[in-house]
Structure formats: C-alpha cells, structure tokens
Amino acid sequence: QVQIVESGGGLVQPGGSLRLSCAASGFALDYFAIGWFRQAPGKEREGVSCISGKGGRGGSADYAAAVKGRFTVSKDKSKNTAYLQMNSLKPEDTAVYYCATDLEQVDCDGDFYPRVPNDVWGQGTQVTVSS
C-alpha cells in the first residue's frame, strides 16, 4: 500500500526550529519529486518546498520566497524518508504541513503539485509558532 506519514510538528516559539519528517511506504521516495505544502486557517494550500527525485534532477530543491533561507528540504534514501528542517520560525509559518508526491513526476519544475490519480498525500502535521 502506498502511503505517506508526516510527523514532527508541534508548538514552538518565534525564532525556534522544527524538523518535519515524511515517511513513505509502498514506493521509493528517493526516485520521485517530493513536495511540502502548508495550509493556514482560512487560506488556500500553498507550496513550501520541493525536491526532485533521482529519476530526474535528483536533489535539486525549490523553495517558496517566504521560506527561502530558513527552510531546508532533504531526503534519506536508507530510511525512505524526506525531511523539512525549519529554522527561524515566524508566527506566519503556523499551518498544517503536508508532504506529498506524484508517482508520475520526478522533477519539481517550479510549480510542483501532485495530480489525481497519481498523487499521494500525508495526513498533515500541525505547526504552531507562538510565544
């Protein structure tokens, strides 16, 4: 069964750090493009970061302007897991964070968004940045 499970969210003070994990099963996460998305209350889901798979420009990463320089995306092939390291967190980073892939896409191409029926989404993990 193809599945993604996120973890690592929580409550953190402004300026703090969190590392989100995206554990995959049923497919080789390293081969495909992996995207991180977030959705704040009352707002649309937005792309945060994307890392291309070994099937394409392996390791090449894109970041939204709002997080560039603060967030870092990576993969660990041996654990079939992707990570989103978030530093210098701000209150506006508060959202539910999702990891997702498209089993027909290996590159991020600047506007990565998994499409039905090849999309695989995790359940999301809440990140709250507040003092």
Q: What's the SSE blueprint?
A:
Layout: E1 3-7, E2 10-12, E3 18-25, E4 34-39, E5 46-51, E6 61-63, E7 71-76, E8 81-86, E9 95-102, E10 119-121, E11 125-129
Parallel strand pairs: 2-11
Antiparallel strand pairs: 1-3, 3-8, 4-5, 4-9, 5-6, 7-8, 9-10, 9-11
Written overview of the protein:
This protein has 131 residues and is mostly beta strands. Helix content is 0%, strand content 45%. It contains no helices and eleven strands. Strands 2, 4, 5, 6, 9, 10 and 11 form a seven-stranded mixed sheet that branches. The protein has a four-stranded antiparallel sheet with strand order 1-3-8-7, with no helix packed on it. A hairpin with a 4-residue loop joins strand 7 and strand 8. The chain is globular. The model has no long low-confidence stretch (mean pLDDT 96).
Overall pLDDT: 96
| Low-confidence runs of at least 5 consecutive residues | none
How many strands, what sense, and barrel or not for the largest sheet? 7 strands, mixed
Work out the number of β strands.
Answer: 11
Distance between the termini: 40 Å
Keywords:
131 residues, mainly beta, seven-stranded mixed β-sheet, 0% helix, 45% strand, globular
